[in-house]
Amino acid sequence: MFVKNWPAVKLKKTVIIADLHIGVERKFWKNNITVPKQTKSLAKRVVALIKKLKTKQLIILGDVKDALYSKDFDKQELFYFFEKLKNYEIIIVKGNHDGNLEKELAQFTSIKIVPSFSINHTFLTHGHKNITKCSEQTIIIGHNHLGVKLKDALGGIFIEPCWVVGNIKIEGEKKKLIIMPPFNQLCGLTPVNNLEGNKLLGPIAKKIDIKAAKIYLVDGTYLGRLKDIENQ
C-alpha cells in the first residue's frame, strides 16, 4: 500500500497523495525568506511518481492549494500544475484550503472534485470534517502534516515525515486509520512523538488511539508504537 520513499499510497492502479499546498512559498516570501517557486518541482515529482507506478489515475487527498482565498499568483500556479498533469485522470477530495476550487479549475473539465471517495474498500477524506458512518474498514486522511522527531548519536535533532497507523471507532465499530505525510516538503511537520496531549488536527484524527499507533518512516522503516518512542 505505502509507496517506498514516497509520501504516497497505491491502491490497485490508483496513486494517492495529500497536502500539495500549492503556493505555500508565499508565506516564506512575506517573512523575507527566499525560496524558489515550488509548483514546477511539485508537478515534476507527481509526474515522476505516476510514471514510476505505471498508472493513470491520481487522487489528491485535500489541500491542493495553500491560500484559502486564491489571488492571481495562486491561480497561475494552479493552472501550471494541472496543465502538466492534463494527461492523467485526477480526483480531488476537497480539503479545508480548497474553497472555490471548482471555479478555479473549471477549465480542466476532466478533473473530478468530491468531498470524499471510496476505493478498494478504503474511505478517503482530507480529515478536517467528521464522519459518522463508514462501511469501509480502512480510512485514509491527510491534514496533519505529521513527522517524528529523531536524535542521532551526536545529539543532533531532526524531524522526518512519517506515516501514522492506528485504530478508531465509528458507531462502535473499529476501523484502521492511516494518516498520510504531506507531499509538499515545505508544509512543515508536527512531531507526533512530541505532542502535548492529543493535539492532532481534525475530528477524525482526534479519535485515534494515538499511544498504540504504529509509526513508519517514508522509506518504510517501522519505528514501533508511539508509546515506545515518545519524547525523544
Topology, element by element:
Elements: E1 9-11, E2 14-17, H1 25-30, H2 39-53, E3 57-60, H3 72-84, E4 89-93, H4 101-104, E5 112-114, E6 117-119, E7 122-124, E8 138-141, E9 146-151, E10 157-170, E11 173-179, E12 190-191, E13 214-217, E14 222-225, H5 226-229
Helix pairs in contact: 2-3
Low-confidence stretches: none
- How far do the termini sit from each other? 28 Å
Nearest-integer average pLDDT: 91
Look up the CATH topology.
Purple Acid Phosphatase, chain A, domain 2
Which descriptors would you attach to this protein?
232 residues, Purple Acid Phosphatase, chain A, domain 2, five-stranded mixed sheet, 5 helices, nine-stranded mixed sheet
